[in-house]
Task: inverse folding
């Protein structure tokens, strides 16, 4: 029974961490997409895809650093380092971009 309770605490803690990281990702997404949209206007869809993962992502992290300095204390208190936030957020961005690309290609195929 004790082992079951300790596993349950572990899963609850990991679920809380994942939720916090996902909230961080959502807060960086608007700046990322806004910056990448300008690349899309001048470079097309392939440039947009690259920009979302590189330039837009880096710019969103820069804005997060400048505007939300005290926000990292919240994540640090929840035992999430800045590097973990950035890495997980990039992974979420990659998955988001892959899903959006798939849906976009599916819609183009249907039309």
Result:
């Amino acid at each position: 029974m004790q082992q079951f309770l300790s596993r349950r605490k572990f899963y609850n803690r990991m679920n809380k961490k994942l939720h916090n990281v996902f909230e961080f990702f959502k807060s960086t997404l608007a700046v990322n997409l806004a910056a990448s949209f300008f690349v899309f206007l001048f470079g097309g869809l392939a440039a947009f895809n690259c920009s979302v993962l590189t330039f837009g992502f880096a710019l969103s992290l820069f804005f997060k650093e400048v505007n939300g300095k005290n926000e990292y204390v919240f994540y640090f208190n929840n035992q999430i380092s800045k590097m973990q936030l950035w890495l997980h957020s990039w992974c979420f961005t990659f998955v988001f971009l892959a899903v959006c690309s798939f849906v976009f290609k599916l819609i183009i195929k249907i039309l």
